[in-house]
Design a protein that fits this description.
Layout: E1 3-5, E2 9-10, E3 15-17, E4 19-23, E5 26-34, E6 43-48, E7 54-56, E8 60-65, E9 71-76, E10 88-96, E11 105-109, E12 125-127, E13 141-144, E14 167-170, E15 172-176, E16 180-188, E17 193-194, E18 196-202, E19 206-211, E20 214-219, E21 225-230, E22 236-237, E23 242-251, E24 260-266, H1 288-301, H2 345-361, H3 363-369, H4 372-376
Helix pairs in contact: 1-3
Length: 377
């Protein structure tokens, strides 16, 4: 085994990006910079000491390539251009070339004096194998078991019920190196999707998944079943699209890469949420009991902090439970504003007063609609 340092060399200008892992036909690296001035957009120029046939960069866009394939420019995505003083910007990428190569890579921040710099932290190490091994980069998620290790499964996630039961796809293998493979599941999108989850079953234990568009949420102790959810920047798809869930996987036991099947569920469809209206207790033209119920549920949806055991919003969980002010004052709880994750005191105070005022004035109406307990909760 050959040990490669993952530290970055700090030079008078630019930084040197180390090759973390490499294998026949490819390598993985990451360029990091200390941010010394606020930035709203950024570009990183990579210079290689030899031609690199193709480059993959999952948290940036390849905006320019030199004719001789020795220089690539990576530009921020629409969602990650903001960087602030004190931040560390790391851009991960995978390169493809002929043979087993470990190129010398120089990286610079475009329009930054000296090309930027990076002060390395503690040195870590990685092991080169004759087959491609684990690679972790900015924007990818790795969940793994050490060879021969079994662990207690992670958090459980219930499979959605009802509806069409999800969309199935068989595993397509594009590369098989004996202990590591490159593959994808391809899901046809039959309805607009706002968040998704895939339940994967492999024919032999898989120790690790490095996923482009998703995150490994949990897996069974034997590595045969994996749950993958979308990355935060990849939740939306339109009917007629195809979700290509491309990934690298590690497996033990020799032989060929495993077979697999996956079922993808649209998490934007809440099949468990009860939208039924209560009976119109006043037998009026309009069902104000239903309007009252929906109004109170709006506040239940906006709740912040630790949620009660009788929470009726099935897709909401605890959030921002560690919010604290000066001197450790507990600031958890309250309501979020306008569907985002900000809490404003004046809107919350006004809403509390109006809700209580309405209840004090029309308690009988709340009782008749069966909403008094929910309001007081």
């Amino acid at each position: 085994f050959l040990i490669l340092s993952l530290t970055f060399a700090l030079t008078s200008c630019d930084v040197t990006a180390p090759v973390g892992n490499h294998w026949p036909g490819g390598f993985q690296s990451e360029a990091c910079f200390d941010i010394t001035a606020d930035m709203h957009t950024w570009s990183v120029k990579l210079k290689f000491d030899q031609p690199i046939a193709t480059l993959e960069a999952f948290t940036s866009t390849i905006s320019d390539t030199s004719a001789d394939k020795t220089e690539y420019t990576l530009t921020n995505k629409a969602w990650n251009g903001e960087e602030h003083v004190g931040d560390k910007l790391c851009v991960g990428f995978i390169g493809h070339a002929t043979g087993d190569v470990t190129p010398v890579i120089t990286a610079s921040l475009v329009d930054v004096a000296g090309g930027g710099s990076f002060s390395p932290g503690p040195t870590t190490a990685t092991t080169r194998r004759t087959q491609p091994t684990q690679h972790t980069q900015q924007g990818q998620t790795t969940a793994s078991l050490a060879p021969g290790q079994t662990t207690t499964p992670g958090p459980t996630m219930a499979m959605p019920s009802g509806g069409d039961g999800g969309v199935s796809s068989s595993l397509t293998i594009s590369q098989d190196w004996g202990q590591r493979f490159e593959a994808s599941f391809n899901f046809p999108v039959t309805q607009d999707i706002e968040g998704w989850m895939a339940n994967i079953t492999f024919s032999k234990p898989v120790e690790q998944m490095d996923i482009v568009v998703g995150e490994a949420y949990t897996h069974s102790a034997d590595g045969l079943n994996w749950i993958v959810v979308n990355k935060q920047d990849r939740p939306f798809y339109k009917a007629g699209d195809t979700i290509q869930m491309k990934f690298f996987g590690n497996f033990n036991g020799g032989g060929s890469a495993p077979d697999g099947v996956a079922v993808l569920y649209n998490l934007g469809v809440d099949r468990n949420f009860n939208c039924d209206c209560p009976a119109n207790s006043a037998t009026s033209k309009y069902n104000y009991d239903c309007l009252l119920k929906d109004s109170i549920e709006f506040y239940a949806i906006q709740r912040s902090g630790k949620l009660p055991d009788n929470n009726v919003i099935t897709w909401r969980g605890d959030s921002a439970v560690d919010d604290h002010g000066d001197g450790g004052v507990d600031l958890s709880g309250g309501w979020y504003d306008a569907g985002d994750h900000v809490k404003f005191n004046f809107p919350m105070a006004y809403s509390t007063v109006i809700l209580n005022w309405g209840y004090l004035e029309y308690k009988d109406a709340y009782d008749a609609a069966g909403q008094s307990d929910w309001l007081l909760d």
